[in-house]
Design brief:
Layout (H helix, E strand, L loop, with lengths): L2 H4 L8 H13 L5 H4 L7 H17 L2 H24 L5 H14 L2 H4 L7 H15 L18 H13 L8 H20 L3 H21 L4 H25 L9 H15 L1
Helix pairs in contact: 2-5, 4-5, 9-11, 10-11, 12-13
Length: 270
């Protein structure tokens, strides 16, 4: 079947092939001007945004929305594969072959004779195989390569989690809370001293400690932050509605009026 025929193909089991044909047509002469000018670099923000929107769909529990957002993520993979194929570097088959081979190699307890009794054993084995594949022989810094491509918040949790594996951790939650208080005091001192660089450093330390408390309690800091964002957004919208009911816009309202409406919105939640 030609690309032109494949674009309208309704057959189940051939839709990935159809997507590749559509992407090829969009990039071909006479296709879409926007798609034609994209590069790996120009698509980075799209890839990140689509991944986060898929995460949001997972958290919402909306399966229809999740299916759509996963499609958008898949499009990014196919788009990058098309760009690479045009340049003669690799294609979608190479991507699929690479990840398939990796999964087989790193699951010898499934596809070979190795034994892994639980999730922790699987992760330890995975890490050892990964290090061997990358030629990391001899001593390497223990935190070498941990989550290099992750955003700062989840990477902080991952660094802390790995450090905890060798006992570098608080024995009790009270130690984490005490550390947060310590970092807050150091931040306040930096603010009082009007030391801009110290404020930035201490604020980072405070955030790192807060992530540590989330990890210590088994919570995902990214999820907690998403909930806090949603709560702020909901309250702000409620505040805006309350002000509008009094004939006030956000631009017209004073700080005191906004604070009063904020407190009212907060009380309404409870």
């Amino acid at each position: 079947m030609t690309d032109a025929e494949m674009i309208d193909c309704p057959e189940s089991g051939r839709q990935l092939e159809r997507l590749r044909a559509i992407m090829h047509r969009l990039r071909a002469p006479g296709g879409c001007p926007w798609d034609a000018e994209q590069t790996h670099e120009s698509l980075v923000s799209n890839l990140i945004e689509e991944a986060y929107e898929a995460v949001d769909a997972i958290r919402s529990g909306d399966q229809t929305h999740l299916c759509e957002e996963l499609g958008d993520v898949l499009l990014q993979v196919v788009f990058h594969a098309e760009l690479a194929e045009e340049a003669g570097r690799f294609n979608l088959d190479d991507i699929a072959r690479g990840i398939s081979d990796k999964l087989v190699r790193r699951h010898p307890h499934v596809f070979g004779s190795s034994v892994a009794d639980g999730p922790d054993a699987v992760l330890t084995q995975w890490d050892a195989i990964k290090r061997a594949e990358k030629g990391e022989v001899g001593e390497k810094p223990f935190l070498h390569g941990v989550g290099k491509g992750l955003p700062a918040l989840p990477r902080a949790a991952k660094l802390q989690k790995k450090a905890a594996k060798v006992g570098f951790d608080w024995p009790q939650e009270t130690g984490v809370i005490a550390k947060i208080r310590e970092e807050l005091q150091e931040l306040e001192a930096a603010v009082d001293a009007q030391d801009i660089e110290a404020v930035s450093e201490e604020l980072g330390d405070l955030m790192f400690s807060a992530v540590n408390l989330a990890r210590f309690r088994g919570a995902d800091p990214e999820v907690l932050m998403a909930r806090a964002n949603a709560k702020f957004e909901d309250r702000f919208h409620a505040m805006e509605r309350l002000l509008a009911a009094k004939g006030l816009s956000l631009a017209d309202a004073t700080a005191d009026q906004m604070e009063e409406a904020w407190d009212e919105a907060k009380r309404a939640e409870k």
